[in-house]
Amino acid sequence: MDRITLRQLEALDMIAREGSFRAAARALGVSQVAVSDHIKQLEARLGVSLFDRERGGKGRLSAAGEAALGRARLILADCDALVSNMRDFVAQDTGRPVPKLAAQAAVPLPIPAEHRPVEIAIAPEMPVEPKPAPHAAIPPVPSDQPIMIGTHASILARFQDKLAAFEDAFPNRPVSVDFNCFVADRVALALSTGDISIAYFYALGETRVFPSDYLWSEQWALYVAPSHRLADREFVNREDLLLEGLVSFTAGNRLRPLLEACLAEGGLGKLPFVVESDDYRLLVEQTLEGQGILPLFGAAAARIGGSSGLRRLPYVDPIPAIEVRRVVHPNLAEDDEVQALVATLQ
């Protein structure tokens, strides 16, 4: 049987975004028949029905469709990252800068003032990933250059004191931080160009593009206003949330694919997004006004959920956790100071 195509995944994604096969066809610039054919071929390859068919060309995803959609969006995101990577190589070969596609532009995510604002670029682990360059092709990193750490501000917050101790012990080896490099696709790109020495990044599981070490997991939590109808329940399950909406990041934010994949695998993929913003403060305000459910994980859950007056739902069904993983540039495996930093940041 033929392999799944990107056009089939794009059709699935666009139907979910636009709400119908007809609207998806307009957005993709093809006929509705073509979109239907793509979905039929995809369903045949997967062996499941992705949509519960309705009159009028509506596109209501089935449970299998919700799960497939989360994975499809991650595959499409990694394909975008692969294109971006290759455009960088073209620029190197020709000596001319290659403009980035507008759709690949980074989306900043404002976070509370105690942390530096960062650019979200989450692309968790998935079955299909960009084919990696072999380690032999990774350019060497001079051992006397500053150590560059790629990570998220929330991850770095756990290492602040230890990092300061390392800098005191090794004053001649400066350490810099790239707050944009904290997901698998960005890490793979930065490794291939020699831009980072170490990365502490988010993923949904073991990475296949490059070897990495598991450090810890961060669980999702669901928050509502104290006045919400579910706030005082002893426990909440999937059925209790079927009529709820989500208060979360915009569709262009790179946290969205991570959130959508986790919720889909947790059986909550059909919940609509009723409020979308990249401003945590606004998300909290809208949640407190009873607009919907705010999903948070890790440090954000502890910091925002624990201090904002929100109520955490006692949700009993599992939502896949986010893993924090570590990778060291292979050409720095024998760099004593880099290895000392790795040992310090345990």
Automatic annotation (TrEMBL):
One Pfam family from the record: HTH_1
Alphabetic keyword roster: DNA-binding, Transcription, Transcription regulation
Keyword Transferase belongs to the record: no
Gene3D superfamilies: 3.40.190.290, Winged helix-like DNA-binding domain superfamily/Winged helix DNA-binding domain (1.10.10.10)
UniProt cross-references to CDD domains, sorted A to Z: PBP2_LTTR_substrate
HTH lysR-type domain: residues covered: 4-62
Superkingdom of this protein's organism: Bacteria
Gene Ontology MF terms in the entry: DNA binding; DNA-binding transcription factor activity
Keyword tRNA-binding: no
GO cellular component: cytosol
Alphabetical list of PANTHER family matching this protein: HTH-TYPE TRANSCRIPTIONAL REGULATOR YBHD, NITROGEN ASSIMILATION TRANSCRIPTIONAL ACTIVATOR-RELATED
Family as reported in the entry's similarity comment: Belongs to the LysR transcriptional regulatory family.
Protein's name in the database: LysR family transcriptional regulator
Origin species: Sphingobium nicotianae
